[in-house]
Amino acid sequence: MKVSHAVLVLCFVVATIAPWSMAENHSTAVAIRRPLSKKRHGCVAYNPIDKCWRCDRNWAKNRQRLADCAMGFGHEARGGKMGRIYVVTDSSDRNVINPKPGTLRHAILLPEPLWIIFSRNMIISLRQELIFTSDKTIDGRGFDIHVAGGSGFMLQFVHNVIIHGLHMYDIAEGSGGMIRSKHDHVGMRGRSDGDAICVFKSSQIWIDHCSFASSYDGLIDIIAASTNVTISNCHFVKHDKALLFGASEKTPEDKVMKVTIAYNHFGKGLTQRLPAVRFGFVHVVNNGYTEWKSYAIGGGDGATIISQGNQFMAANGAAKEVTKRERVPESIWRKWTWRSEGDLLLNGAYFRQSGNPNWAKTYKGYPLIPAQPAIDVPLLTKFVGASLHCKAGAPC
After folding, report:
1. Confidence (pLDDT) at 41
2. Cβ(115)–Cβ(138) below 8 Å
3. Rounded distance, CA 383 to CA 209, Å?
4. Of 161, 130, 137, 270, whose CA–CA distance to 226 is shortest?
5. Whose C-alpha in 67, 244, 271, 371 is 20 to 30 A from the C-alpha of 188?
6. Nearest-angstrom CA–CA distance, 89 and 105
7. Residue 1, C-beta contacts closer than 8 angstroms, at least 6 positions apart
């Protein structure tokens, strides 16, 4: 009887605590109760973008439906929804002037809307920066697609682009030279900066479910009056200056910039610029921050930053302040609207607010993504990054 009683007690304890776990790999001190799916191998999606498509077992037959799921300032990005499917069958990038049919570069340069997918797992090392044309979707679902060990993406003077499901890391500078930038144009290009993705004077851009690390320069730059961009469900690790929105104090044209950062995870090995913003308007909503060595959110030149429902976990031995203003006296930066609303600040993290606390009463832009409670961030960001292991005929 004593043995069976002990077993009963143990089973009760295990059953009680099993649904509870620490927030994924976020190293936060917040315990959350994970909802259990009705089916043992069922699909559970937690944030509204994922709920739009991830649990559809027929996603591979309805790939272009993904374009209806964008939210935030990049909600109008349709990518190649109105075009045909192009299957990349060749991971090489040997010829940047006359790219081989079947390669990613060949697809990106075609003068038509395209939904670009892949025939197998690939590692693509770009010899030079990949210069996009408008109305393109790169959809990595179904395979592990790595863009690594070469140059990155340049979205310059384009609109309507979706980048989904890619691993991008170890991105290097491009040497420059003669490169095809359109199907009917080849020109001389200087050295590329070594960003994973650079968005230059472009609009209606959606970057979703990508994994980023270790580029020569930045992970994502949004500059030169680019606007209407959403970055969602991405995973960022192992980088110094990660996200730069607005190139410098000499580019006031970036006042038109509007960027949404939603449901991302900023993880191990990050230092700063998560993001750094100049001039524009950035909505940071329901993201998980578990490490920044210098600061998480910074910038200058009158940028507006609205932080809602995020979870900031300061690392031991690193900076506790979330924010950083660029080299100006308080008499100037206190006029900038940097607001923290409903954020969860852990392990000594603090957000130095400034500007108009009633900004929402005068805001007349596109409706912002409604923030969910910050305590739910570990669930909202549970499936970030490109490693969804999607298989045709089953939910992702």
Report:
1. 52
2. no
3. 8
4. 161
5. 244
6. 12
7. none
pLDDT-derived band of residue 142, with 50, 70 and 90 as boundaries? very high
**What is the rounded CA–CA span in Å between residue 301 and residue 78?**
32
Q: Give the integer Cα–Cα distance in Å for 217 and 232.
A: 21
pLDDT of 91 strictly over 80: yes
- The two most distant CA atoms of the chain are separated, in Å, by 84
Q: Which residues are catalytic?
A: 273
Number of residues written out for the chain: 396
Of 40-44, 79-83, 188-192, 342-346, which gets the smallest average pLDDT? 40-44
**Rounded to whole angstroms, what are the CA distances from 195 to 13, 23, 81?**
50, 30, 26
Q: Does the pLDDT at position 9 exceed 70?
A: no
Supply the DSSP symbol for 128. S
DSSP 307-359: EES-EEEPPTTS--BSEEE-S--HHHHTTS-EEEES-EEETT-B---BS-TTG
Closest to 25 measured CA to CA, from 383, 386, 396, 389: 383
